[in-house]
Automatic annotation (TrEMBL), chain A:
Belongs to the class-I pyridoxal-phosphate-dependent aminotransferase family. Alanine aminotransferase subfamily. Pathway: Photosynthesis; C4 acid pathway; Amino-acid degradation; L-alanine degradation via transaminase pathway; pyruvate from L-alanine: step 1/1. SUPFAM superfamilies: PLP-dependent transferases. It is an enzyme of class 2 (transferase). Pfam families: Aminotran_1_2 (PF00155). Its cofactor is pyridoxal 5'-phosphate. This is alanine transaminase. Residues 155-518 form the Aminotransferase class I/classII large domain. GO terms for molecular function: L-alanine:2-oxoglutarate aminotransferase activity; pyridoxal phosphate binding. InterPro entries: ALAT1/2-like, Aminotransferase_I/II_large, PyrdxlP-dep_Trfase, PyrdxlP-dep_Trfase_major, PyrdxlP-dep_Trfase_small. It comes from Olea europaea subsp. europaea.
TrEMBL record, chain B:
Pathway: Photosynthesis; C4 acid pathway; Amino-acid degradation; L-alanine degradation via transaminase pathway; pyruvate from L-alanine: step 1/1. GO terms for biological process: photorespiration. Homodimer. Residues 90-449 form the Aminotransferase class I/classII large domain. Its cofactor is pyridoxal 5'-phosphate. Belongs to the class-I pyridoxal-phosphate-dependent aminotransferase family. Alanine aminotransferase subfamily. This is Glutamate--glyoxylate aminotransferase 2. Gene3D superfamilies: 1.10.287.1970, Aspartate Aminotransferase, domain 1, Type I PLP-dependent aspartate aminotransferase-like (Major domain). CDD domains: AAT_like. The lineage of its organism: Eukaryota, Viridiplantae, Streptophyta, Embryophyta, Tracheophyta. One of its GO terms (cellular component) is peroxisome. One of its GO terms (molecular function) is L-alanine:2-oxoglutarate aminotransferase activity. PANTHER family: ALANINE AMINOTRANSFERASE (PTHR11751), GLUTAMATE--GLYOXYLATE AMINOTRANSFERASE 2 (PTHR11751:SF373).
Amino acid sequence: MRRFVAHSARRRNNFTTCVLRHCTLPLRLWSSTSTSKPCYFSGSVASGGSASAPPLTLDTINPKVLKCEYAVLGETFILAQRLQQELKENPGSHPFNELLYCNIGNPHSLGQQPITFFREVLALCDHPVLLDRAETRGYFSADAVERALQILNQIPERATGAYSHTQGIKGLRDTIASGIEARDGYPADPNDIFLIDGASPAVHIIIQLLLRSEEDGILCPIPQYPLYSGSIALHGGSLVPYYLDEETEWGLEISELKNQLETEKSKGITVRALVVINPGNPTGQVLAESNQREIVDFCKNEGLVLIADEVYQENVYVPDKKFHSFKKVSQSMKYGMEDIPLVSLQSISKGYYGECGRRGGYMEVTGFCSEIREQIYKVASLDTCSNISGQILASLVMNPPKVGDDSYESFSSEKEAILSSLARRAKTLEDALNSLEGVTCNRAEGAMYLFPRIELPKKAIEAAKAVNTAPDAFYARCLLNATGIVVIPGCGFGQVPGQWHFRCTILPQEDKIPIVVSRLTEFHKAFMDEFRN
Amino acid sequence: MSKPLDYENLNENVKKCQYAVRGELYLRASELQKEGKKIIFTNVGNPHALGQKPLTFPRQVVIALCQAPFLLDDPNVGLVFPADTIARAKHYLSLTSGGLGAYSDSRGIPGIRKEVAEFIERRDGYPSDPELIFLTDGASKGVMQILNAIIRSDRDGILVPVPQYPLYSATISLLGGSLVPYYLEETANWGLDIVNLRQSVAQARSQGKTVRAMVIINPGNPTGQCLSEANLKEVLKFCYENNLVLLGDEVYQQNIYQDERPFISARKVLMDMGGPISKELQLVSFHTVSKGYWGECGQRGGYFEMTNVSPKTVEEIYKVASISLSPNVPGQIFLGLMVSPPKPGDISYERFVRESKGVLESLRRRAQIMTDGFNSCRNVVCNFTEGAMYSFPQIRLPPKAIEAAKKAGKVPDVFYCLKLLEATGISTVPGSGFGQKDGVFHLRTTILPAEEDMPAIMASFKKFNDDFMEQYEDYRGYSRM
């Protein structure tokens, strides 16, 4: 079935089309049904059941579900899982004996160790019997014991198995607010903090509040992390792209924001918010403070909510850049907090802690009227509360051991080791990529990814078309089949049309990096030899 | 210029949805607590908050050992932890791809999904496919995912029992669908009436709606009734005839307080029926670690199992789950432990059984104490709590009370519950939060306060209620006839 996309010009959002459709493989089971014909089931009543189609099929499923995509765990990943299974059942069936997952920011799955202090505190909080008995208490560092006691005193009945306040345990939010204040130099209010099962569910809540219909749009960077495109599609709105400039290290230009805003307005779209990912994903750039001030001004002047995805705030690898929170930046300007509606996101999944599997994080919500805050609370309350371990971890991340604490030395050396290793791996991979024919790669100033651009020869592009695949997806698939390296094609994140990229994490352990480099280099040379013009 | 996100330009669906469990009463109770008043929170099924102790075994395994693997490496660990907890911790850690801190498969760790499938097979006697089981951060997330897949517009209706757990009404509102109510019959022990169901569906269709699915909560929340096998058969047939997906909320399956109607899963009944219906009727069943005798609400662990849903549809549901990456790993391990608890012969078995039985027997006693306590109050009638965790007494408010409520700008049962709260510190949820017949009022309380506190709580309630009725009644009062 030919899936060359030719959506009519009537469609407002061509970019979304590009992101969502170009990556399709004919064998892919997702989104391969009749999206071109109306999805509404006419509601005929079945008598006796068996004569009609079941109530829930691809024809009657919510069409927004069909529309949304999430490339990080999409077709390339699914193919990788299949190869993994084949290797397991039939070793030697592929030219590699292991998969190298560079598709997702999931550090512990690739051998990164958890921070000891954090795990000590968690173990004690969840099984306080360990705290109460002297012989077991001795297994843990004194400050971990102290911190666990402090946290347990903030939890009614010391019950970590109980639902908490919907926004999260008050004492933990107090700790986080202090941590934010220490970071920014400006006060933070614990009542502005909503602890959530990871930053992703927080994004869903805010997007849900903002989008009333397809006529509401949200400005998203291109390239972007496809949680945004996915959830905008799921909630029935429009993604309004603004392009980051690869030539200037993925710079964000206000003029570009303005142009896109004006274009959408003229089409009748009400742009409601601006998403900024800082440090960027997949692009890794860290914004300069002056840039951030321009962005705040822009939001203020255009009446937009600013959604600041700051989950990589602890991942900055270059000495010439520093992370500044948007909250700090806006507070340092002439505006009062109530002037700038801002949602700041932080997570326990990244940084040097990498506790992805816990599902923890928070959104700090400032500059909204009380009625909106009540609505945010109400939607959050449907899930009752976020998981308690994740809440505790968030408070530890925002208030780690300090100088003088028992665990400070070991904590610092663990943290330092991880961060400096990440910086080294980023540089090694960046250099390796830049040495490949037709590949240019901006440095990873922060986050966990590299996003190189590949100039694909015409023959390769034609070969891709022949199998009904986007050229970068074709490259990624060939790479996977030849080497076991799993990357995500740039079409999953968005890119300037006609350009091709892929996203590769910097997370394989340092001893695996040379293998990744050598396999990639060898593959690329062979690929170019085959398809060179 | 109006603000970018103001009440006026908020998504209408968000405005429409309500969730009383954490609504007005709860907020007022929290305020009072801050002011120093002692509050007894009986508004939410949150056992550990009211003193129920966590079971020892899972806390040892998951929390201590999986959480802090350096404990596992310590040579003396065998002196502190029983051998079976150590083995289990190692087992679950080996199933993860990097410990508790790594994202797992978006559907949940395959090894744990397999354990869930094995549990379902042991329970029902029919094999279950792990590929059709998705683990979620609590059953609520699963419910939202499935409803999101079903609801396309406000022309799609979902049959929901009244009274119901307001996750359903709130989620349907949020997703822009239509709630089609079917009334449970209080005088018939909250029984389900097929005639009423048919009427509800007919009415919805006459309004141009397509009824897509039916929710049953078994055991019921807030009503506690346990469905009989015959009942379940009727429901399944009904769904089949009307082309509905059946959503079986079975999170309270371990909480059964009578012996006439033990828990039987919708899936078992479906499979027992055999024939085309067992191969065609679409069913989604939900379960959790938050209830039962586990009560681990704060972990956020649960699953849903799909029956007769095509692989392509399952793929789409998987896709949406993948946007949130993965359910939390400790919660998944709790679920694994729940579905494969210690067995006879295991070192931890005796203690585990003792603790679980202790919790269940106490819940059974408390269910009785509360029912009897309510029934001894003036103008209060209460069905017995056959299962789940709640008591849902009917409060027959005198007309003068209803008037006073109107004057105060409150719904009558909210008025009553607020007064109850101010007078006694007992924080309940008014029946209007769950739905009820017009002019009939209830409140929901949990049966979770500690057993030794129960007599005092019921006495306090009785005093308040009888004084309230005294205050607002005419001379005759209401008869129970």
